[in-house]
Amino acid sequence: MNADARTSGDELRLARLLLPELAERLDTVVGATDAARAEREFDDWLDAESDRLGERFSTAAFAELDAEASARFSAAFRRARALAERVGIEAPEPEALIEAGLDPAALADAIAEDPTLEAVLAPYGLGDLAWRELFRSAGASGAAGGLVLATEVVREFGRLDAVPDPSTPRVAVAGTDGGRIEWTLRAIPAGERPSVLGLGYAHGPHVSLPEMLALQLGRLVAGADPVDTQTFTWLAGTLADGGLAARHVFDRSDDVVRIAAREIGNQGPHLGARPPIG
What we know:
Blueprint: H1 3-18, H2 20-30, H3 35-61, H4 67-87, H5 94-99, H6 104-113, E1 117-124, H7 128-140, E2 147-149, H8 151-155, H9 157-160, E3 171-174, E4 180-189, E5 196-197, H10 209-222, E6 232-239, E7 244-251, E8 256-263, E9 271-273
Parallel strand pairs: 2-8, 6-9
Antiparallel strand pairs: 1-4, 3-4, 5-9, 6-7, 7-8
Helix pairs in contact: 1-2, 2-3, 7-10
């Protein structure tokens, strides 16, 4: 038995001592001789309790907001925790972002004025392989999925995978490779089309690549319609010494997100920006 297994077993035995009545009920259901199954059932219950408590604490952080705003922020943190769990990193607690300078009330006011805005927690520093695996997993689970990156985007992915505005509040956590992952929370225009259309890259500010991917992934996993099925959204950060910029689209023909690169002067009726707030 490895160390992790021994630790898990010790924790379950301790939980049984602390909650004997529940342990007894579980043993009655599954049979006293089926100890392994009883421990699995109990472990599942502990996980559910942990999720419930985490949700309660997230809601408490936004207690001063109205019910709708609190629910939307709590949903954003649920999505972030789900993403973080799939990657193997930690998601930030609301209090940590607030301590870093996040103003939930200001974001809530902005969202109340524009219902198309969506609170999005985004991790920076995951790298292209992690994002591709996240979208691949979404597709494997039955949701539309897949992430296709242009060669120019892969070559300079790090330029797009960093917080674009140094003044944005962020919380750092450890990455799976010992690196640094930074989380931010901003309000992103999440309508079917960009909120500003027909302009070149110079007319920003722009949503970041991690924000756009987190927004789109959350919608796909939830079974909601993806955005940008007939439009393109500029992404923050330039490539090729400032000559190119990345843009996002959802390709209905292949059910994949495509991130391509175009000259920054490109413009047209289907290309635009989703200026973030926060």
